What does this fold into?
Amino acid sequence: MDRLHMMEVFAAVADRGSFAKAAQAMRLSPPAVTRAITALEDRLGTRLFLRTTRSVRLTEAGARFLADAQRILHDIGEAEEAAAGAHANPRGILHVTAPVLFGRIYVAPILRDYLDRYPAVSARALFVDRMVNMAEEGVDVAIRIGELPDSSLTAVRVGFVRRVVFGAPGYFARYGVPGHPTELAGHHAVSVENGAPSIVDWRFADGAIAVQVPSRLSVTTLDSAIETALSGWALARTLSYQIAPHVMEGALRIVLRDFEPKPLPIHVVHQEGRRASAKLRSFVDFTVESLRANPAIQG
It folds into this structure.
């Protein structure tokens, strides 16, 4: 059996967590998928999946092999695109990652507009709040917030975000607008953490000012904290892009701007390489132009 075919079937099963779903996606029969995985395991001399009647999950050896398989399949795809003239005509599958909220608010609309412009391209978006290893997970383009470590990746700066304190106009009408961080001790906040409600420590002016703010409500998601602030019940603190639409609408107001920490840069990161495909080049250019035109990340 063809080794590349076995690897493609293995990656499909791992991605979908199901033999049946992989068979459907690849337009194969379920027995054909089972034969391919069995042949691959026999060739490698190890089990790649733990299979029960209810679930399919990778073994430790399978997880290690998946990272290598994804990288190999990605490289083969790039080589085929280059040989077929993909440098001139964007086509193929584009893999993009970004933080969850940034991805939902800003990257998803960019992806939709890009796919409308280039109908021969399809995309897979991985929106997660963790640092994705682009090489191991086969990602073409990443949107990163914060200072970047030194690496061989190419990064284009497109804007910045700030860590801001905000509340609804109704909240400030009842409790007043703080003019200095020390005044926050007389307010109350909704905190985003896993612990019980307590006092939260907010630092300003790059750590020079530390204030303890009463918090009677602790939530585990940013969406919940933002909704609480929108209701006028408490102040909250997040990154500026996460509330930009509400600020532009006047539903939320940012305070204490003069005491904010240093802004965090936003970069579009990609692996350029000598065989960079048209889909990669065109998407990076499209994304950089779109984000630089977005006032929410330009101050």
